[in-house]
Amino acid sequence: MKSRLHLFQGYGVELEYMIVDKNTLAVKPIADVLLRDADGQVTGELEQGITAWSNELVSHVIELKSNGPSDDLGALHQKLVADVRAINAQLGEHGAMLMPGAAHPWMNPAKETRLWPHESQEIYQAYDRVFNCKGHGWSNLQSVHINFPFYDDEEFARLHTAIRFMMPMIPALTAASPILDGKFTGYMDKRLDFYERNQSKLPILTARVVPEKLFTRHQYQKHVYDRIAEAIAPFDTDKILKPVWLNSRGAMARFDRGAIEIRIIDIQECVAADIAVVSLITELVKLLVSEKYVSFKTQESFTTEQLYHVLRSCVKRGAKAQITDMDYVRTWGFESLSGGEFWQAMVERLGDSIAAGHQKENLKQLTQDGTLAERIIKRLGEYYTQEQLTEVYRELCDCLAQDRLFRK
Fold first, then answer.
1. Phi, psi of 62 (to 5 degrees)
2. Which domain range does residue 179 map to?
């Protein structure tokens, strides 16, 4: 059994991508052609050295991830780029390719959803029975997950508090889901808007997305997992769905593997952008855990409701969100603050600690030009045709294949 890691000794990174038809860009549920072992049998996970490929809830999504904790984001970046190219080569034989972005812009989930029908299918079918997964919040969403390790309750408390404090600002950096059903939704991060509501039948599963003030494993078990178990029991009579799977807070604790997983990051247009985002968020969390910038006592003093309202503003407006909670604004050292201003300041403050590749340059570009959602809307203009929408998302596919940023 592997020994547990301490704070920031390694990171787990997961990237989700859509599989689409090369000509029409319609979703294509053929992830199983990628996930075959040496004997040609479909498997839920395929190891690829320092990375692995795995299935998701629906068959048009593939996940690329670090194969265990990694302490070298530069090496991980290069391997993930190679994986994208290898996957595109395989998909090309089936008239398909990978598409980035946090939501397909015109997928019809009611008609096009195909749940993963192989290994662990009983889990996905149970989810579908309870929640009906044929909707945008379930079957049309792609994200980046970052897993940060912790060793014991003391490290958990420091890490959980730091993540909880900074995570409301994440959509102001990463919003990438402005269009659904072919139309602008009015949100820069519509994926997260759905994320909050898609399990509303059982509110305890997501709570307020921003997690509660919890500092020990015992507290977390009592206030989160025990309450989830009680809530799901009447709906899951076969006892298939475990509370640790059902917990959908935007940052969730996994005590079984000693990690906290951030789940609210929209996936960007290319691996370079995603790894740059991972690097920046990591350095910010490190800074907060160190208490060199904001004390632990100050971080934990903010209520979940306060942080939730900051999050909602960033979900709606991305980099243009104006943060109106002046206690929060002043705690970061500002007198006024927009989402974009916050992240530009963080890049300047933390950029020298981001060493891998060209991540600092990429981050400067990302924060100067606005979120991917804003760049997509800027390119499309106020009025656009289906052909123009297709053209923009085809370019996003090129950005992923070539590992380059999308310009507004």
1. -125, 140
2. 104-402
